[in-house]
Amino acid sequence: SAGGEESDGAAEEHFQLLGLSSVTEKTISSTQKDQHGARSQRSQEADKPHRRKGEKKHTCDECGKDFTEKANLKRHQVIHTGERPFSCDLCGKSFSWKGSLKKHQLIHSGVKAYSCDQCGRAFTQISHLQSHLVTHSGIKTYSCDICGKTFSRRGHRNTHLRIHTRHVVYCCEQCGKEFIRDAQLQEHVYPH
């Protein structure tokens, strides 16, 4: 159908924006399959030096986290330096990693390749769809230690906790009034 073709095209465009291919180009020869097919997966994993315990030779001086590859350590270290060398040409938002910029750019593209089978809501990233699916399950794993109210998302519980702690995060620049949530501030600022 035309709708299916459009979503396939949107998915392909999504993968291209992320610098990925929707079709894996790596293939394993039948000889390689035969060679490894009879061995257990655990045995095959043991052959991979980057998977062995104790092989993390690169340690972050700031936090002590260990890495198997020096490149991964360097990638990690930008969280400590605050360096954000990748910026969006459309809105100016900057990122520590190129992959984060590419994910962000999907917002501007309008491509939403992942949609919820239950309600039809669409998302630019599969992780956002996965977070959304929890709302349909009815499972609320996060609870407020003060009043017992339950939430399906940790962020919603954390925002709720501000009600009890009176932790003020948002402040009106014009009059100084303080708010717990950004939406409250925006509602307040509009009449100014």
* Ends distance: 50 Å
Oligomer: single chain
How many strands?
10
Q: In percent, how much strand structure appears in the residues?
A: 5-15%
Biggest sheet overview: 2 strands, antiparallel
Number of helices: 8
SSE order, one letter for each helix or strand: HHHEEHEEHEEHEEHEEH
What percent of the residues sit in helical stretches (DSSP H or I)?
Answer: 40-55%
Whole-angstrom Rg: 23 Å
Question: Could you give the order of strands across the largest sheet?
Answer: 1-2
| Helix and strand composition category | mainly alpha
Poorly predicted regions: 1-43
Give a description of the structure:
The chain is mostly helical. It has 8 helices and 10 strands. It has helices at 2-17, 30-37, 41-46, 70-81, 98-109, 126-137, 154-165, 182-189, and strands at 58-59, 66-67, 86-87, 94-95, 114-115, 122-123, 142-143, 150-151, 170-171, 178-179. The strands form 5 sheets. The chain has a two-stranded antiparallel sheet. A two-stranded antiparallel ribbon has the order 3-4. A hairpin with a 6-residue loop joins strand 9 (170-171) and strand 10.
Task: Tag the structure with descriptive keywords.
two-stranded antiparallel sheet, mainly alpha, extended, 45% helix, 10% strand
Short overview:
The chain has 8 helices and 10 strands. The protein has 192 residues and is mostly helical.
